[in-house]
Amino acid sequence: MKIGNWELEIRSPSFNIRNFIMRKKIFLKSFGTFFVVLAVILLLIFFHFKGWLAIPKDAVYFISAPFLKFWQQTGDKISGVFNFLLTIKNLDRENYFLREENRKLFQENTDLKEAVQENKLLRQRLALGEPAQRQLVLAKVVGYNPQLGQYFLIDKGSAAGLVPDLAAVTANNFLVGKIVQVNRYSAKVMLISDSSSLVNAITQETRVNGVVKGSHGLAITMEMLPADQKINKGEIVLSSGLNDAIPRDLIIGRITEVILKESEIFQKATLQPATDFKKLESVFIIVK
Questions:
Q1: Residue 20 — φ and ψ, nearest 5°?
Q2: Which CATH number is 150's domain given?
Q3: Which of 252, 251, 288 is nearest to 131 (CA)?
């Protein structure tokens, strides 16, 4: 009903009665549910104290036990997988650090062994009683190719004071060869077994002078020996220091055979080198 600007709602008495009845039903339903739940709780408490719930509890546990066990085992397996993956990751990380540490220890051990080897060579040189004025440079053999000739490369060059024609010897004073080419940080050494090598030499016992020559890396011989001079088999041959840059008294080798022909005025001798050239690792260069 509308009066002027006002709108009035007029409800009939029957509508209010229906609304009241619906609210009462909802209240009674809620109240009844509450009492039912309360009664159930009280009954369960009563049954529990009486011990009557033991059988239902056992039945529920018996029925649910397989499912609970299954889910527990599944959970344990899943947890185990994650733990295994985590363990693998941790082990991989630990292995990485262990590998790095092993590399460092391997390098340190290698450097230590090399230092021990160098000290051993130096002690051997000192034991020979070298002349006070003689200066030596220790060099490592870094390359050797017999197919290109009887040469090898060392890791020292002009920066260490090396020049051509300097003698290369072992720690035991065995003559190896001489430098034929020098770079800034490396040098090329020709072995006395090369066919181009010539070294003035003298026999230690009979004091006969001659020239030691190489034979294409196959052998070394001492030639230009006067036929009227006696040469002993097994005699040591030394460098004589005559007319070349190689100093005297370096051990070249031992005479294994003396060859003398009636029609020639010179005899010659084959020598066994004092050292195995293929096993060289380090040499000393006589600088002065």
A1: -65, -40
A2: 2.40.10.340
A3: 288
Q: Phi first, then psi: what are they for 169, rounded to 5°?
A: -130, 165
| Residue-level pLDDT at 157 | 93
Q: Where are the alpha helices (DSSP H) in the chain?
A: 13-50, 54-127
Q: In terms of domains, do 151 and 270 share one?
A: yes
Strand partners, 212: 199, 222
Choose between 183 and 11: higher pLDDT: 183
Domain end point (choices 33, 52, 71)? 52
SS3 label, residue 11: coil
Structural domains of the chain, count: 2
Same domain, 142 and 47: no
Q: Which residues pair with 174 in a beta bridge?
A: 251
| The CA-based dihedral angle spanning residues 96, 99, 104, 105, taken in that order and rounded to the nearest 10 degrees | 140
The Cα 108–Cα 117 span in angstroms is: 14
Inside any domain, residue 96: no
pLDDT tens digits for range 194-247: 888 999 999 989 999 999 998 876 789 999 999 999 999 999 999 998 867 788
Q: Give me the phi and psi of 24, to 5 degrees please.
A: -65, -40
Give the whole-angstrom CA distance, residue 265 versus residue 85: 88
Percent of the chain at pLDDT exceeding 90: 30
Neighbours of 7 (CB within 10 A): 8
- The structure's pTM equals 0.56
Same domain for 285 and 187, yes or no, is yes
**Domain range for 175:** 134-288
pLDDT band at 3 (very low <50, low <70, confident <90, very high): very low
Asked if the structure places residue 110 within a domain, the reply is: no
